Amino acid sequence: MTSVPDEHRARAVGTTGNVYAVAMLSSAGVSGVLADGVGVLTVLATAAAVQTIAGGLFLVMSRRTSGNA
């Protein structure tokens, strides 16, 4: 958000919120369908792996960009 000009910050926050909401809605639907097809434990294990990888990427990316601010 610090790289967005002040006059566009509200739009950036709104867009981020909308993308997050759509991702939550679509992931709920997809995970339900996948749970029926491959099993609940497989879906939960995959979700945990994806979140762990995303958390690691977040840490790496935030360390890279923290010095640029």
List descriptors.
mainly alpha
Account of the 3D structure:
This protein is mainly α and 69 residues long. The chain has helices at 9-38, 40-66. Helix 1 runs antiparallel to helix 2 (40-66). The longest helix is centred in the middle third of the chain and has 30 residues, at 9-38. 0% of the residues are buried.
Briefly characterize the structure:
This protein has helices at residues 9-38, 40-66.
The N- and C-terminal alpha carbons lie at a distance of 11 Å
Radius of gyration: 17 Å
What overall geometry do the principal axes of the alpha carbons give?
flat
Structural class: mainly alpha
Summarize the SSE layout with pairings.
Blueprint: H1 9-38, H2 40-66
